[in-house]
Structures are given as C-alpha cells and as structure tokens.
Amino acid sequence: MSEKTAALVVGGGVIGAACAHYLCEAGLSVTVVDAAHFGQGCSHGNCGFLTPSHALPLCVPGAIGKTLDALLDDDAPFSIKPRFDPALWRWLFKFAGRCKHDLAIAAGRARLALLNSSLALYKQLIAREQFDCEFETRGLLFVYQTLQEWEKYAPTNDMTRDEFDLAASPLDRQTLLNLEPALKPSVAGAWHFEMDAHLRPDMLMTAWRAHLEKQGVSIREHVSVTGLRRAGRRANAVETDQGDIQADLIVVATGAWTPKLQALLECKIPIQPGKGLSITMPRPAVCPSYPMLFPEHKVGATPWKSGYRLGSTMEFAGYDTSIDPRRVELLRRGARRYLREPYCDPVLETWYGWRPMTYDGLPIIDRTPAMDNVFLAAGHSMLGLSMAPATGKLLAEIALERSPHIDREPYRVSRFET
Length: 418
What we know:
Number of helices: 12
Distance between the termini: 33 Å
Radius of gyration: 21 Å
CATH architecture: 3-Layer(bba) Sandwich
CATH topology: FAD/NAD(P)-binding domain
Helix content: 25-40%
Structural class: alpha/beta
CATH superfamily: FAD/NAD(P)-binding domain
Strand content: 25-35%
C-alpha cells in the first residue's frame, strides 16, 4: 500500500463512522458515502445504551419457546410479519440451531470482547475530542414488575459472573425506589449493571461527523452503490449513481442493507432486518435519573439532559417502512407499568430503524473471500452503537494487516459457509 491510501467506507452509520475514524487515524485518506444521510438509520433513533451487560446473544436455550409463545400474542414486543420469505425461514432455522448453552457462551465471550473494548475506546475518544453527546456512566437498570421474574434472573446473573466476570447488583423494591423514585411503588426490584453507560446517539453522530471532517474525511450523502469494478481479486472502484469512486481499500458498513450487496461481494451475508421503534420527547416532570430496561415487556427508557426516549420492540417484516401505531402503543403501555410519568407531550419524533440481525448474534468484521481489498463491517444486531469503536479499530487492523487488539476469529464471514 502507498503511504497515503485511498479508503472508501460505504455506509454512514455509527459503524461506518468508526471504521472511517480508525482508518483516518492510521494515516489513510478516507471518503464515506451513504445512500441517505450520515448518522441516520439505527445510529440515530436507538436508546443510546452502551452495554457490556448484553454479552449473551438472543440465541440462548429456551429462546425458541419464548418466540413461539410471542407469535400467538398480538401484543408481544416480538413479531414476524407472515409472508413468503425463504431467507427469513433459513435464518430462523439457523437461529434455532444456535440455542445451545456452549454456543451461547462462546458467542457471549466474543460479544463481550467488542463491548468492553468499545466502552473503553468511547471513554478515551469522548474525553480527548470533547464530544458533546451527553455521555454518562450511571449503569443500566433491569427493572422487573413481578417478584418471580426478578428472582428468576439470579441464575443468569450467576452464570455471567462465572463465565464472563460480568455481574449486576440486585436491588429489592425499597432499595430500588430509594435509588430511582421515578418508578412506581408496584415494581418488584431490579438488577443494576453498573459497568454500562449511555449517551445521546444523534448528538454523538453530529460530533463524530464534525471531528471526521476536521481530520480531512470526505462525507458524501445521497450516493447509492450500484456495482464494483474489479481486476482479478481486487476492486478498483465502486460504481455509484453519481459515477465511479476509485479506492485502494473498500469497507462495506451498510447495516441491515448489506444482504442487498451479497451478489456483488460474492459471499453469504445472512442478515435479517429487525425493525425497532422509538419515540422521543422532552423530559417528563418526573423523569428517571437512570437509563433502564423492562425485560418483561422489552421496553427501554433513556433520560438525557436534553430529552427522553422510549424504545424497543422487534419486528421481522422485511424492509417495510411503515410505522404501525399499535406497536408504538406497546412502548407507551410497557412504560406505564413501571414509571410514575412514563411519557409526555409533545412527541418530537416517532422513529423506526432496521437492526442488522445475524442468527448467531455476532457481527461480521472481515475481508471478503473473493476480493483482497474489500472488507465487511456489518451485522451488529442490536448492539451497533455499543460495538462501534472496537469494530472500527479491528477493521483497520485487519485491513492494514496489523496485530488485532482482540481475537478476530469469531467475526469471520467464512463461518456462514458451513
């Protein structure tokens, strides 16, 4: 490679931003292109959690039974839109095959490596560059409505402590209410993951964009990729609706859209779009001090200095762009069970985004098998924000053939060939 290599990052979400950051930091000239706007999609409207607590993947023993139960409940936060979709059926079949204890533990270790590294890198980056993104390290509360479900989490907490050195502090009802008086007295208790953090993702992306552009990164919006121009095992340029863009190194970080490019990339990319929703509003008069999840109803609540957000749900509906008011109401209804003032007017934004879901819960961070200078950084499921800095750093290390700061093996794209 030349001393100043041209790198093109396709995708302007948080993963693309992180890849651009670490490639630029390594001395490359970097261009980012996005089919829409930089910092939109799932990088914009998520709950802003940075969660080592989420080391375990969704594919754990018992997940299939819970999924089937949810499909019979119209009010369940998880849903699958009935349709003819063989790719989704294959994905669900593979997901079911991963719901084993040993596989979940292995995936958890790989996820935690990215999560822990990313949180440390966020702390360094935000402090060094003075990003204004309302970053706080108050942890995350898993709040339960029923005593039975609160107590049922204890074995999982013991397991993650033993396997990952990752454990939460149990809070009984009174201790919890003393800590967080915005909760209703009817809650049963919570688990406090003190290692977690949160920030405001739209503000992060605004600050990160300004920093990238200050460092010389070119960001081009409304540029759609249509093809690759190749010579043997190398891609010389990316073909777009605005002309060809030459590059020596190409990174595809297009999130849930990545399967649309698998014919160009000549490899399997079994990512399904899992639609999530959020509503953003001003802070209620009785606003939580801590970010929290309500696992029994799959709703998250995030307080920031400048606002407040409810989010979650998971809908496998393909690339459906509609927002079902009934599913938005699930967020409100779930929050009402726990919070004294669960929401307020006006609603500033009602948002949806497609999470890039892999069936094993692990992202792809790797060189593509057919081209030596084209790389993938996609499939972070529900943890793109939480895993972004470590992903960008690892991608740059792989692309520049430097020693990786974490083990790269779990994220190889070749795992989908078996």
